[in-house]
Amino acid sequence: MKYSVSTYTLFGLPIEAAIRTLIAKGWNSIELMGEGIHHGRSLLDMDREHLEKIASLGKRNRISFGFHLPIDGFNPALPNEETEQLWKKCLFIAEILEVDYVLFHLGTNPSVDNGVESAARFSKKMLRDLPEKSKLVIENVPHAEMAVGTSMDELIKVIQMIDDPRASIMLDTGHCYMNKKHQFLEECQKVFPYLFGLHINDNHGLSDEHLQIGEGTIPFQPLLFALEDRELKYVFETNTLERAENSKNFVKMKSWRIEDVENSIK
User: Fold this and answer.
1) pLDDT at 263 over 70
2) Does this model's pTM top 0.85?
């Protein structure tokens, strides 16, 4: 697996300051969170010169970037002019920063079926627009009114409709556990064939707490055991950088025991 960290861990900082802090801490793969007025949302207002400075900073330090697109206003499941314009701005950013992937939520639609179809169509357009090296990654989301992508089955349908090897799924462990606490491992297993990576964060099944592994009740041991031989990107998306680093150390130490994984998924 490959280890990465989200700038969400430093959400209170401006995006460039967050990037510099993560580089100084030794991270060489960074997912840029495109939300927060004083954080990732500021990327949308940067001119080419400023973005090129960030790109240069990344190259000098051999950093690979991923880009979590904005959530508010970006709605592939029911695209409108705002979604189109946001995508143009995000594409501009993705091209200059030469991101490895763009990641996004599918959005909302009164009809889940129509939302799945709309999201697949818009995703195909995104793939046509993106540089060939950049992958497209969709993420599962918590249950919310009219939300599309709360179940793995919905994500799989979108990926199958896109039908492109550059499209895959980011499994957010926290979101999945909130939605399917008692069927968590079975729900995760569904997307194994389509996985790009994991957003790793813990919670107690009630809210999106973004804790480190072990602070909540997500059964990480059997999940990580089942995936340990896969070449995936593990993105630590906790609410502090310390928690991300602690979770990374847990994964690197493979600190699960045989008795922890007796009922693991295969």
Assistant:
1) no
2) yes
